[in-house]
Amino acid sequence: MMFSTYLQLIILCTISTLKTCTSLNLSIIPFDEAFVPLYGSQTITLSNDGKSVQISMNEWSASGSGFVSRYPYNHGLFTASIKLPNNTYSAGVVATFYLQNNELMRDEIDFEFLGHIEGEKWVLQTNVYGNGSIHRGREERYTLPFDPSKDFHYYSIFWNSGRVIFYVDEWPIREVKNVESMGGDFPSKPMYVYGTIWDGSNWATHNGKYRVDLQRGPFVTGYSFIINGCSLDPFDSTPFGCDVVLPSGILSFAERQKMNWYRTWLMTYSYCDDVDRYPGSLPECRVEGPGMQPEFFTRVSG
Ligand SMILES: *[C@@H]1O[C@H](CO)[C@@H](O)[C@H](O)[C@H]1NC(C)=O
Ligand SMILES: *[C@@H]1O[C@H](CO)[C@@H](O)[C@H](O)[C@H]1NC(C)=O
Ligand SMILES: *[C@@H]1O[C@H](CO)[C@@H](O)[C@H](O)[C@H]1NC(C)=O
């Protein structure tokens, strides 16, 4: 586990900027060091070595469970190793890994898994909100080229002032650039890290057609984390642990090709293409189009 984690992150670093990556901490962070329970604490189970946690939803804990980081972070590379519920039917059960703050003008960066019915493809959703733009969702959905309930896989969020990049097993799948046309909708304030499992019956699986069936539970999701970010004291915002130098986050030509491959073949929905919802589409879509940023055509090396 540790070794493969190391390898995975080395890859993540190499594809960014090796130079700045040497200061990344590639260890899984002990759960208690980084997180506290948020709700449903009776269904949060720590592993014996303290490095991973299982959270679940069942008949006795119908609203699920979740945890939140002890500290907010201002930028970082956040990697969760996640194994989803392996029940034959987990429709409506939403499992998440996300960053968020509790400000009135909220910022948020999401990975959400939208439940599953055996024989169908899993659906992963990503989303970004900034400065309280909660009525302007920027959802994208994808299928996965593996069964995420069989094994642990890595899901990473890279976030700095210039961009957000989502990775699945170190493969970039989405880049959100802080372009001027997005205005304040780009996440800009320190955020906490969350992992949750909850009942999304009303919308998650086939738009809510298939609901949670608690009798088919318990629905168990496993997590462990590698966090490299600048943490802040939640009370007076004093930074600490900020000696980590993050990669630049600028995708190389090869990475951009990988990302475009993923988006061409595995993306099933983009808010940029949803003309019923956003007639004329949001400004950054008109400028760049999903996955087809101008850089793709002009830049030939990282
Ligand atoms: C890396 O993280 C581990 C787990 O949190 C911690 O024990 C260790 O001190 C960290 N190392 C560095 C160099 O920050
Ligand atoms: C299903 O997942 C649970 C929780 O991760 C695990 O304990 C169990 O062994 C898994 N079952 C199968 C058949 O993989
Ligand atoms: C955030 O939203 C508020 C209210 O809509 C607005 O006044 C403010 O200018 C926005 N901030 C940024 C950075 O865009």
UniProtKB/TrEMBL annotation:
<dbReference type="GO" id="GO:0016762">
    <property type="term" value="F:xyloglucan:xyloglucosyl transferase activity"/>
</dbReference>
<dbReference type="GO" id="GO:0004553">
    <property type="term" value="F:hydrolase activity, hydrolyzing O-glycosyl compounds"/>
</dbReference>
<keyword id="KW-0961">Cell wall biogenesis/degradation</keyword>
<feature type="active site" description="Nucleophile">
    <location>
        <position position="108"/>
    </location>
</feature>
<dbReference type="InterPro" id="IPR000757">
    <property type="entry name" value="Beta-glucanase-like"/>
</dbReference>
<keyword id="KW-0732">Signal</keyword>
<keyword id="KW-0808">Transferase</keyword>
<keyword id="KW-0134">Cell wall</keyword>
<dbReference type="InterPro" id="IPR044791">
    <property type="entry name" value="Beta-glucanase/XTH"/>
</dbReference>
<dbReference type="InterPro" id="IPR016455">
    <property type="entry name" value="XTH"/>
</dbReference>
<feature type="domain" description="GH16">
    <location>
        <begin position="22"/>
        <end position="223"/>
    </location>
</feature>
<dbReference type="GO" id="GO:0071555">
    <property type="term" value="P:cell wall organization"/>
</dbReference>
<keyword id="KW-0326">Glycosidase</keyword>
<dbReference type="GO" id="GO:0048046">
    <property type="term" value="C:apoplast"/>
</dbReference>
<comment type="similarity">
    <text>Belongs to the glycosyl hydrolase 16 family.</text>
</comment>
<keyword id="KW-0964">Secreted</keyword>
<feature type="active site" description="Proton donor">
    <location>
        <position position="112"/>
    </location>
</feature>
<feature type="signal peptide">
    <location>
        <begin position="1"/>
        <end position="23"/>
    </location>
</feature>
<comment type="function">
    <text>Catalyzes xyloglucan endohydrolysis (XEH) and/or endotransglycosylation (XET). Cleaves and religates xyloglucan polymers, an essential constituent of the primary cell wall, and thereby participates in cell wall construction of growing tissues.</text>
</comment>
<dbReference type="Pfam" id="PF06955">
    <property type="entry name" value="XET_C"/>
</dbReference>
<keyword id="KW-1015">Disulfide bond</keyword>
<dbReference type="InterPro" id="IPR013320">
    <property type="entry name" value="ConA-like_dom_sf"/>
</dbReference>
<dbReference type="GO" id="GO:0010411">
    <property type="term" value="P:xyloglucan metabolic process"/>
</dbReference>
<dbReference type="Pfam" id="PF00722">
    <property type="entry name" value="Glyco_hydro_16"/>
</dbReference>
<keyword id="KW-0052">Apoplast</keyword>
<keyword id="KW-0378">Hydrolase</keyword>
<protein>
    <recommendedName>
        <fullName>Xyloglucan endotransglucosylase/hydrolase</fullName>
        <ecNumber>2.4.1.207</ecNumber>
    </recommendedName>
</protein>
<dbReference type="InterPro" id="IPR010713">
    <property type="entry name" value="XET_C"/>
</dbReference>
<dbReference type="GO" id="GO:0042546">
    <property type="term" value="P:cell wall biogenesis"/>
</dbReference>
